[in-house]
Write a structure and sequence with these properties.
This protein is an alpha+beta fold. About 15% of the residues lie in helices and about 35% in strands. The chain contains 12 helices and 36 strands. The strands form 7 sheets. Strands 1, 2, 4, 8, 9, 10, 11 and 13 form an 8-stranded antiparallel beta sheet that branches. It has a 7-stranded antiparallel beta sheet with strand order 14-25-16-21-22-23-20. A hairpin with a 2-residue loop joins strand 28 and strand 29. The protein is globular and about 60 Å long. The protein starts with a helix and ends with a helix.
């Protein structure tokens, strides 16, 4: 019966144009789970996608495929956008795991089944393959039966096929979207289902379509650029648009869905090199990369100091938050449209933003600075715990109209450029990396008290192509060079879906020891601070008891756990001041056993003397 149906279906496909090339462009997304989403694609009978994946160190650090009942744009969390009646039929992860109505169950309670993929490769090879691979994904729907076939080709030379099947009532609507999971994905639609109305005039094969970029009659100044809208969502410095060259003028329309802080909107970054947005700009641009100025939405910026460019010149502001006040500014930026015009005259840059909020408020902001940009001049945008949709409106006039590198040139091999610039971070010491198996074990054994009902802790490794990883490499190299360290991404989820809200007050977290620090007696906990882009101490040094340690926090983000000396050990080692005013212990100069007893005795006497002095001073000051 199935063979007969397949034969009839094939005959139908051969006879009529049931599958059409897609006109939509590639969507590039980067971030943690449930922080970024593609638009939703309607699934009538067949969808096909080419997906480039730059994954991380856990089996789930690639992407998820989500089947829902409503069309979404990807500009905000799908449930928020779709509103009442939104339903997720099934969520399918890359590592043969999914949910909807339970583990590997659809919302109807039917099974989600898997063949191949990670089951054929094994965890280690699967992770290695998904770190840099191309996936051809074909999704077909026959009534309520859905089949997903993925052909995966890794840069490591490994190939594997995966087939996923489930059956679910999708009569309320049928759409598919994708979301990265601590990874970077580039999703390119290849085919779409047949429109029900064959008279639909917008088929891409129509040669009369007037928007062909090859048309030589197109004006070359202040024209509509060929770049499409870019939708980004995530915490600060986790996602970036491509860089746009600033010659004289750039104009953008930016839709913003902001957060609860004045900075939860977006930043505008001025640099000297072109970047594609597929990885951290400094990593991609390499040696010589320079940030002239970074301008936040709340009249704050930096480059060479607070509200200073890299040259030390002032960044000045008029209007914006200064006119609205903090509360109205936050409320306006939660849902607003921004028309941003950036002009450059020599070294003088002016940014004029016309902001219109869904709350009815409007405000203008003008930013000015002067900086030497002779090494190159490009602009890109990055969200700050927000979702932004950036659409270029005008581009600078090309100096040479015959220049083939203008943005209108469709032959620009952007995908090749992205591939050649993407790579793993070169870190001198990655002993802090945790394995996916270790992360799963720690997660299962974790105890967290004080969280909202049904909210649980998720433990994951840090993706090597993330900015957080770069910060870890730097911090460990500078501050924890001789320590045993474990790095983990601690986040929250509810019902298998990322939970974006942070705790309302302190919660207590108890974790087992990671394999990296299995012999630790005392732990110093550090958390990533988004404001300073580095790690800060959490609480005091905590003692390990029965292979577990406990700390309190009010923020879930990347964490470092360092094996350190306890209070008793600290008093017998040499304290050295750090740049932060705290002390770290240095035992590298301890005498070797048996050859310097007098020194040991002297050190003990000195320590005792210091202790007496400290007590005496304390009593005097009491």
């Amino acid at each position: 019966m199935k063979k007969k149906f397949f034969a009839v279906a094939m005959a139908t496909i051969m006879a009529t144009p049931t599958v059409l090339p897609v006109t939509a462009n590639a969507a590039t997304l980067s971030g943690a789970w449930w922080t970024a989403w593609t638009e939703g694609y309607e699934l009538k009978d067949k969808l096909e996608f080419d997906i480039d994946v730059k994954g991380g160190d856990a089996v789930w650090n690639n992407f998820g495929t989500v089947f829902v009942n409503k069309k979404t744009s990807g500009t905000q969390a799908p449930a928020d956008e779709a509103g009442e009646g939104y339903k997720e039929y099934a969520v399918v992860r890359g590592d043969n795991w999914g949910w909807g109505g339970g583990d590997n169950k659809t919302v109807d309670g039917t099974d989600i089944t898997y063949e191949g993929g990670i089951a054929d490769l094994g965890d280690a090879d699967f992770i290695d393959t998904m770190k840099d691979c191309k996936v051809n994904l074909v999704i077909t729907k026959n009534g309520n039966d859905v089949t997903m076939v993925s052909d995966i080709t890794g840069a490591n030379g490994k190939t594997v096929k995966r087939t996923v099947k489930f059956s679910v009532d999708m009569s309320a609507g049928s759409y598919v979207f994708f979301t990265p999971d601590s990874a970077t994905i580039e999703v390119t639609p290849v085919t779409v289902s047949t429109p029900e109305d064959p008279s639909e005039p917008s088929t891409p094969e129509d040669p009369s379509e007037p928007s062909t970029p090859e048309d030589p009659s197109e004006p070359s100044t202040s024209e509509k650029p060929s770049e499409t809208t870019t939708i980004l969502s995530g915490a600060w410095w986790t996602a970036w648009t491509e860089g746009y060259e600033l010659k004289d003028k750039l104009e953008f329309d930016i839709d913003v869905k902001g957060g609860d802080a004045v900075w939860n909107n977006f930043g505008t970054v001025f640099v000297n090199k072109k970047t594609s947005g597929t990885q951290a700009p400094a990593d991609e641009a390499g040696e010589g990369y320079k940030e002239y100025a970074v301008v936040r939405g709340d009249n704050w910026g930096w480059g060479g100091g607070d509200n200073k460019t890299v040259d030390g010149t002032d960044i000045t502001y008029e209007g914006g938050i200064a006119d609205l006040g903090d509360a109205d500014f936050i409320d306006t930026m939660k849902d607003c449209k921004v028309n941003l015009v950036i002009t450059k005259n020599g070294n003088d840059v002016t940014m004029v933003s016309d902001i219109t909020g869904a709350n009815g408020k409007t405000v203008k902001r003008t930013v000015k600075f002067s900086v030497d940009m002779s090494a190159g001049s490009y602009v890109f945008f990055t969200p700050d715990s927000a979702t932004i949709e950036v659409t270029p409106v005008t581009v600078s006039t090309p100096e040479d109209p015959s220049d083939p590198s203008t943005p209108e040139d469709p032959s620009e091999p952007s995908t090749d450029e992205q591939e050649t610039t993407t790579g793993e971070v070169n870190s001198p010491d990655t002993d802090f990396d945790i394995t996916s198996e270790d992360a799963e074990k720690i997660e299962k054994e974790a105890i967290v008290t004080g969280l909202p009902e049904n909210v649980t802790l998720r433990v994951a490794s840090i993706a090597k192509n993330s900015t957080n990883y770069q910060a870890i490499v730097k911090f460990v190299g500078e501050k924890l060079k001789n320590k045993k360290v474990a790095a983990a991404d601690l986040s929250l989820e509810k019902g298998g879906v990322a939970y974006a809200e942070q705790p309302n007050g302190k919660v207590k977290v108890t974790l087992s020891l990671f394999e990296n620090i299995k012999d630790a007696k005392w732990i110093q906990v550090y958390r990533y601070d988004n404001a300073t882009k580095t790690f800060v101490e959490v609480d005091k040094v905590v003692e390990v008891k029965d292979g577990k340690f406990t700390f309190e926090t009010d923020h879930f983000t990347p964490y470092l756990f360092a094996s350190v000396n306890g209070p008793e050990e600290e008093s017998t080692t040499t304290a050295q001041p750090t740049t932060t005013g705290k002390t770290v212990t240095d035992t590298s100069n301890k005498p070797k056993t048996g050859d310097s007893a007098p020194i040991v005795v002297f050190a003990g006497m000195a320590a005792a003397g210091l202790a007496v002095f400290a007590v005496s001073k304390k009593r005097k000051n009491a």
